[in-house]
Amino acid sequence: MSDIQRLLEIMAALRDPETGCPWDREQTFRSIAPYTVEEAYEVAEAAEQNDPAALKDELGDLLLQVVFHARMAEEAGLFNFDAVAGGLCEKLVKRHPHVFGNARIEDAEAQTRAWEDQKAAERGDAGVLADVAATLPALTRAVKLQKRASRVGFDWDAIEPVLAKIHEELDELKAEIGEGTPKARLEDELGDVLFAVSNLARHLDIDPEQALRGTNRKFVRRFEAVEAGLAARGERLEDASLEAMDALWVEAKKGE
Fold this sequence. Notes:
By secondary structure, this protein is mainly α. Helices cover about 70% and strands about 0% of the residues.
């Protein structure tokens, strides 16, 4: 028995109405979806940390999510795991005619364009932005929306207007900040700033989610250094002044 077949049988046993696991039996597509997203992020984290052992483990957890969804679909008479794998095989072959056919693709950039052209053909009469999932992380979705719009010419061809747009949106936000401004208005203006910043990331060919995850790790690292510095003095964070914490922060920054 292959490991894939064994995995499918284990999942079926977990979902067995009489002898399966109570937690696994009561799950639905909707209840499992957040775990699927979480596991995808953990795969990304392992890859960014260049940790092969963690990556193998996290890929297994992500595969479990695919198997779980496929099993629930099979029980409902919708499709099964083989159909998922078969559909993926067909899609990969169709979108790589330069590998499985006679088409010629010069480089990775040309392949990306060809891939997007194929996806556009598959969308048919649907709008350019129609299939950009609303459930994506907001920064990731912003970049995808911008990329799609760019493909039909709705984009700047230089970095200067992108930077100018960020300053424009920041000025609009600053003008709204003040007592009595509705939170919804501030949220709208802040969203415009974040959208403009994500556009800058796209023009710089930087993944904003990855960039922010790196900054989050940096913040944790430096803040923990502040905690350690205060503890070495016998002080607590709650009792330390902002000046003292900031000095330790600067020290930690210099140490990097």
